[in-house]
Amino acid sequence: MKKTFVLAISIILSNLLLGQASGNINYQNQTRYPEQNISVSNPSTSNTLLSVKGLANVKADSYLAIFSVNQVGKTSQEVNDLIDKRIKQSVDEINKHKGTEVFIDMISFVPIYEFEIEKKIFSKTNYNEIPKSFELKKNIHIKYYDQNQLNDFISILSNQDIYNLVRVDYFASNQDSIKKQLMNKSKLILQEKMKTYQSLLGISFDTLDKSLSDGYRVLLPVEMYKSFEAYNSSSLNEKKSQNINLADKSPTLYYQPIVNKEFDFVINPIITEPVIQIMYEIKLLINKENTNKEIKTQSKKEYILISPNGELKNINL
């Protein structure tokens, strides 16, 4: 009995430890991971398809942060003066950081309406829509090279009541060289695969028809964020007439890059921050029907005998 109790406690503790190591994302019931088993299709009798996939994790060397500014005023002059003052004070502080570039993007300038009641003695009350104030929206684009500077920009802008960080874009100046590196390495691996297949099949691919296709795909960090809610609610056995007020659950965002488990090779496999991910795939289709055609063509060779008189005669061997 004592051994059984110790075993049960051990199982419970092991489950708790595993749950803690996996992270709070497992509180989300909707989270599903793809099938982990490998699935290989049946071989084709006429074609051989060779494929190579490569992935490169590229660290960004420049960034663009976009903040949205919203201003309301009673007149068009007032709203322009207020927003320009807030933006100018912020930009002056931001420009003190070396290597930064700032661009102000005009978004919208619209009136805000309200209803004015018009009462008449011998008719129904009318509600007339009239301009009440004006709303002006602008975006501040900040280009910078040090990722740690973003915290400084947030502090500067918050002093002017600018809190809306719309997005952060990532850029890498070496993307072209990385793409060439992916292509060259994929070609080498593809050539090795061809040698292996030729050895296994006992044929040469040199005289066979081949078709080739390849392509790139680039994924930016802004596209790779997912969200979930981590909480554990209690169940209440109350009557339907009871009111239950649920607390707001704040969603959690996390960066989920492409997992490097389906690639033939990965450049910079270990990452500690959001990166630009470049994928490359090359496919080679080899038509093995040519081998059978050549054999049939050789078996249908005809031999012709020329007589002394110049006559041509077919000879079946």
Short description:
The protein has 317 residues and is an alpha+beta fold.
Structural commentary:
By secondary structure, this protein is α+β, with helices and mostly antiparallel strands. The chain folds into 2 domains: 44-61 and 172-230 and 251-317; 62-171, Alpha-Beta Plaits (2-Layer Sandwich). It has helices at 2-22, 76-94, 149-158, 175-201, 289-299; strands at residues 47-58, 62-73, 101-118, 126-144, 164-171, 209-219, 225-228, 252-255, 265-267, 276-287, 303-306, 312-315. The chain has a 4-stranded mixed beta sheet with strand order 6-10-1-9, with helices on one face. Strands 3-4-2-5 form a 4-stranded antiparallel beta sheet, covered by helices on one side. A two-stranded antiparallel sheet has the order 7-8. It is elongated. The N and C termini lie far apart (90 Å).
Structural topology:
Layout (H helix, E strand, L loop, with lengths): L1 H21 L24 E12 L3 E12 L2 H19 L6 E18 L7 E19 L4 H10 L5 E8 L3 H27 L7 E11 L5 E4 L23 E4 L9 E3 L8 E12 L1 H11 L3 E4 L5 E4 L2
Helix pairs in contact: 2-3
Tally of DSSP helical segments: 5
> Secondary-structure element sequence?
HEEHEEHEHEEEEEHEE
Strand-pairing-aware structural class: alpha+beta
Radius of gyration from CA coordinates: 35 Å
Question: Quick one: how many beta strands?
Answer: 12
Shape: elongated
Helix-residue proportion: 25-40%
Distance between the termini: 90 Å
Largest sheet: 4 strands, mixed
Average pLDDT metric: 81
- The residue ranges in which pLDDT falls below 50 over 5 or more consecutive positions are 1-22
Side-by-side strand order of the widest sheet: 6-10-1-9
